[in-house]
């Protein structure tokens, strides 16, 4: 036994706890010490406990096994690492499949970038084909702005054809942050479906490997249902919000909007990419409210509401299930009263009716033996009680982090609305013509929409320097934290990470210094074009707006386009690159299969 362990290379990144459980020296498909001790006291328990402790500590078991002429499999994926350490054999086709899955999950951000770039290039080509005299650079700018849900444009989009507008909104749907967030659980769903057959027992595998494989086969099925539920929940959220926005906008608008205009405005509001000017609708409270609420629900408020939406979905699912179960029980009693039979005949006659209920009760025995829960109920529990909810869904956080995001959004919105109340309330201010309740409403909507949308009901050209600084700050602060495992591993808390990191950044304090000078030394210049913004202010405003996906701009007064429309070709391409980079700010670098996230 000792000589066999010496001939096999030792693990390269396994913790001491894993090494102490007997995982050192295991080979794929070969005789291992675990096989000889399989039926001795608690070998399976020690093996699974060591792997579970490694997962809880955030460590990835990485084995370096030597299998003669076979290829060494080192850290291929979460699942393969576990199988390699457990002594399970893999065919060459399975090894190739696992390598492919591992490549996708480890390089997800590059695949996402290629997906966005492909849609942008295809959309730019289609825009050049549908619109005459449209340069490819301008078409690429509009397509990238639509896919990245920004709203900036270098040309007059309002003058385009109706077909072009519809195609532009289709690109918004394809590249929207909420809809693409379902791609990660969808890929996890595909990966788990492909990897589940590898976990089934095999006569060539060790007894410890078969036991561990069965354990992770059960976890794989739980992940499959949880991933499917995340995909369905995201799609339901997108559909319900779009229908609600279109319904309320069509019912209560005072601008006599047509049905196509209502649908396009609802889609553009949800994705925060409103290309048409919104200043003509400033007197329509329905348009102002729907555009602001749509922009909020389409991005910033989605992480805040996702956990609540899942609970509401679970409540609705439970109600439908109880109603269906009561209907089946009533139907069964009615059949028994109409067709009396002996016990044996009755069981044979009604077996098809009782079988699903018995099967559901058997599958639902979990959480301490509680019965009456189905597989989907367990999926809801796995998502809502997950130790790492971001591995289930990109925008899902625990309750404390969710409350933090909601409070931070409200605080930043109030701060961004303060300049309207102090500088634009009366006199020659932008809010002067309106009643006081509508002033508060309009200021809050305009301030809230800065965080996630490109609509401007009030002209930004009439803002003061301090107001511009506050607007840049509101656009610059990330609307949602990046849910990567680096944040959880280093800080163990999203609120802690996003409070400490700005205060330890030199760029943040430089901006605070500029912000203080603008507030305390502000002077309003005289003249018909007051206030005046220099090139540096306009450029900074445009770049931050493009990166954050806001879409606001400070164009010259003589131009009806955004500031980017007055720039050259190279500068336009730079703004395109900034929008592309900002779109991937909230995209995970890699995907976790999620075994260690199950409660």
UniProtKB/TrEMBL annotation:
Presence of keyword Lipid biosynthesis: no
What domain of life does the UniProt record list for this protein's source? Answer: Eukaryota
The Gene Ontology terms for molecular function here are: monoatomic cation transmembrane transporter activity
How does it sit in the bilayer? Multi-pass membrane protein
What keywords are annotated for this sequence in UniProt?
Answer: Ion transport, Membrane, Transmembrane, Transmembrane helix, Transport
The compartments listed are: Membrane
One GO term (biological process): metal ion transport
**UniProt-recorded name of the protein:** Trk system potassium uptake protein
Protein source organism: Trypanosoma brucei equiperdum
């Amino acid at each position: 036994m000792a000589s066999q362990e010496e001939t096999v290379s030792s693990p390269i990144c396994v913790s001491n706890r894993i090494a102490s459980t007997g995982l050192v020296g295991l080979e794929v498909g070969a005789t291992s010490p675990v096989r000889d001790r399989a039926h001795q006291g608690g070998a399976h328990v020690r093996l699974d406990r060591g792997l579970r402790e490694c997962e809880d500590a955030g460590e990835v078991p990485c084995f370096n096994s030597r299998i003669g002429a076979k290829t060494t499999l080192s850290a291929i994926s979460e699942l393969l690492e576990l199988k390699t350490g457990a002594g399970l054999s893999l065919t060459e086709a399975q090894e190739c499949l696992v390598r492919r899955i591992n490549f996708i999950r480890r390089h997800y951000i590059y695949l996402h970038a290629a997906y966005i770039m492909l849609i942008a290039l295809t959309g730019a080509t289609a825009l050049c084909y549908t619109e005459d005299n449209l340069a490819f650079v301008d078409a690429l700018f509009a397509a990238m702005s639509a896919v990245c849900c920004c709203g900036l444009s270098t040309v007059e989009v309002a003058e385009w054809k109706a077909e072009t507008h519809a195609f532009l909104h289709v690109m918004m749907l394809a590249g929207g942050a909420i809809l693409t967030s379902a791609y990660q659980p969808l890929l996890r769903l595909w990966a788990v479906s492909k990897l589940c057959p590898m976990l089934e027992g095999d006569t060539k595998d060790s007894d410890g490997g078969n036991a561990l494989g069965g354990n992770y086969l059960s976890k794989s099925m739980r992940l499959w249902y949880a991933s499917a539920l995340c995909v369905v929940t995201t799609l339901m959220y997108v559909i319900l919000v779009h229908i609600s926005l279109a319904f309320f906008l069509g019912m209560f608008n005072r601008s006599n909007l047509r049905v196509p205009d209502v649908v396009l405005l609802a889609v553009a509001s949800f994705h925060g990419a409103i290309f048409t000017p919104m200043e003509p609708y400033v007197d329509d409270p329905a348009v102002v409210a729907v555009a602001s609420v749509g922009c909020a629900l389409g991005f910033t408020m989605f992480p805040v509401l996702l956990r609540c939406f899942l609970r509401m979905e679970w409540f609705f699912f439970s109600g439908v299930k109880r109603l269906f179960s009561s209907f089946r029980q009533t139907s069964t009693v009615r059949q028994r009263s109409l067709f009396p039979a002996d016990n044996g005949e009755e069981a044979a006659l009604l077996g098809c009716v009782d079988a699903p209920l018995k099967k559901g009760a058997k599958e639902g025995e979990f959480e301490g033996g509680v019965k009456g829960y189905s597989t989907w109920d367990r999926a809801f529990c796995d998502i809502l009680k997950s130790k790492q909810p971001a591995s289930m869904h990109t925008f899902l956080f625990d309750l404390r982090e969710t409350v933090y995001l909601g409070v931070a959004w409200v605080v930043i919105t109030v701060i961004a609305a303060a300049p309207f109340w102090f500088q634009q309330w009366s006199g020659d201010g932008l809010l002067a013509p309106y009643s006081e309740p509508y002033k508060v409403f309009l200021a809050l909507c305009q301030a809230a929409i800065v965080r996630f949308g490109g609509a401007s009901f009030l002209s930004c050209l009439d803002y003061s320097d301090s107001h511009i600084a506050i607007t840049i700050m509101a656009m610059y602060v990330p609307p949602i934290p990046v849910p990567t495992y680096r944040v959880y591993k280093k800080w163990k808390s999203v609120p802690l990470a996003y409070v400490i990191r700005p205060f330890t950044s030199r760029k943040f304090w430089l901006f605070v210094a500029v912000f203080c000078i603008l507030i305390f030394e502000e002077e309003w210049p005289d003249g018909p074009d007051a206030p005046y913004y220099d090139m540096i202010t306009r450029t900074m405003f445009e770049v931050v707006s493009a990166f954050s996906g806001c879409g606001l701009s400070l164009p010259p007064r003589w131009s009806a386009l955004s500031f980017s429309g007055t720039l050259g070709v190279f500068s336009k391409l730079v703004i395109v690159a900034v929008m592309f980079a900002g779109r991937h700010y909230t995209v995970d670098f890699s995907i976790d299969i999620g075994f260690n996230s199950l409660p």
